[in-house]
């Protein structure tokens, strides 16, 4: 292994030791510990490290130098023993099918009992390896914090709900009702399981929750019917052929706001397309729904540093000041 790789491993060890000293690995909350993808760590742009207690999970977006991961694992053994970590795994995203393997497991590690993302008292089913996404987006934490502040006593629409993490957080925060909409039935089923996983939280157990498997751009009537909504989340994929392409389809969402939102509704518009900047959403609002007023852009998670803020996940809080346009009236 090259001297350069040795230096990079030493940097990673120091970085993770700092996280340990901050107490982050003694908490059960899931988070990103190292984000090379933000171009802030030269030579390590291909690597991210996440913590899903008690699992430390590496994701490689390109092939590391031969011996890099073995040496990294050896260097981290002392660090692992001083923390709550019981397993170290890696996903090879640069390979077809994103295969994965365990580099280290302790004798007490229970794979089946450990596949959860955790957020305070809430838990979410995840799958590590074999797919692009675990089922829980760590960089969306600012959005989940926003939802906690908005949901109490209100009816929530969660568009492109995926595995319904927003819904579980809204329910736990006291939402009156949550309507989840996604065309992926498998993701919605996992969303239902996430709700069932958290029924020991009284607010989750008592919240009225719906799961609609719909092609959103073709099902506005069924989405409108439970409305109007006091809190709306639009979290579409940036590019999913045959489903949604942000550059051409986001405008179709914005123009529907008056038919979905009650007056004074709070709306979170999410944009995960690096090629589209802040002005993209602002332009759509001005053209399609000028009754929406920007409250502010949410601060990105500090766990996801990026040299270019437009490359990051972008989250915009808007408030709808117009009247609900009931299409049935």
TrEMBL record:
Coiled coil: none annotated. Keywords: Methyltransferase, rRNA processing, S-adenosyl-L-methionine, Transferase. It comes from the Bacteria. It is an enzyme of class 2 (transferase). It holds the Pfam family Methyltrans_SAM. GO terms for biological process: methylation; rRNA processing. Its EC number is 2.1.1.191. Residues 31-318 form the S-adenosylmethionine-dependent methyltransferase domain. The keyword Oxidoreductase does not apply. One of its GO terms (molecular function) is methyltransferase activity. SUPFAM superfamilies: S-adenosyl-L-methionine-dependent methyltransferases. InterPro entries: SAM-dep_methyl-trfase, SAM-dependent_MTases_sf. This is 23S rRNA (Cytosine1962-C5)-methyltransferase.
